[in-house]
Design goal:
Blueprint (H helix, E strand, L loop, with lengths): L10 H18 L3 E6 L8 E6 L5 E7 L7 E6 L4 E7 L7 E6 L14 E7 L8 E7 L13 E7 L4 E9 L5 E11 L8 E6 L5 H16 L1
Antiparallel strand pairs: 1-2, 1-12, 2-3, 3-4, 4-5, 5-6, 6-7, 7-8, 8-9, 9-10, 10-11, 11-12
Length: 221
């Protein structure tokens, strides 16, 4: 296993500056490159630890439940909940919901965490590159994406080779697709637990990481 050395002492500053750094990369027209480690920083924990190109901690996921937990929370470096990935109960298909913030903590609040996407695993008897699709649960108002924009994920999670596409209906009636994120093997990494997540300019790094968690959940279930 390739060693990963997080600069945990700098986590608070990194969490505050991630959005600014992504905006700066977007200005330059450059993608944001993150290193994903499929391990928790906590002893006996399961999850993910994500670093930027400077080796600073930017995202983390920590779970203790055995097997595949029904709900996973993506946090920033300070432990603030960014997105919740929850498997849908009593569904005829394999479906997940993605919420803003901590969905469980806000369930009793006057304003519960809003749903952002419904995700469904693609099940086909024929060979296909399509793995999953995210459909908007509400108008997100995200920069650059129409409310009707959906996301398709293609490739192989087991091989750590994925592409995520934003798909929006065009005026002519067809679909316009643009690649917004990719997952690939990290150079010199031994095994599949350390890999690279590359987020294209204009796309939200936290949502790209939520898709990685989603695919991990789908493959574990």
């Amino acid at each position: 296993m390739t060693k990963v050395h997080p600069n945990v002492a700098a986590a608070a500053a990194v969490a505050a500056s991630l959005a600014a750094a992504a905006a700066e990369e977007e200005k330059k027209g450059e993608a944001v490159s993150l290193t994903v480690w499929r391990r928790s920083l906590l002893f006996n924990g399961k999850g993910f630890t994500v670093f930027d190109s400077n080796g600073d901690l930017v995202f983390r996921v920590e779970t203790y439940a055995g097997g595949s937990p029904r709900e996973v929370v993506l946090m920033d470096a300070d432990g603030r909940a960014l997105l919740t990935i929850r498997r849908k109960k009593l569904s005829l298909a394999d479906e997940w919901l993605i919420y803003d913030g901590d969905a469980a903590a806000s369930s009793s609040a006057p304003t519960p965490a809003p749903k952002r996407f419904t995700a469904r695993r693609n099940i086909s008897l024929l060979p296909t590159k399509s793995l999953a699709r995210l459909s908007p649960a509400r108008a997100s108002g995200g920069a650059g994406d129409a409310p009707s924009c959906r996301y398709d994920v293609e490739g192989s999670y087991a091989s750590r080779s994925l592409e995520m596409f934003a798909c929006a209906s065009s005026a002519s009636g067809g679909d316009q697709r643009r690649r917004v994120a990719t997952v690939c093997r990290k150079e010199a990494a031994v095994g599949p637990d350390v890999f690279r997540l590359v987020v294209e300019p204009g796309f939200e790094p936290a949502l790209a990481m939520a898709v990685v968690i989603l695919l991990d959940q789908m493959n574990a279930s």
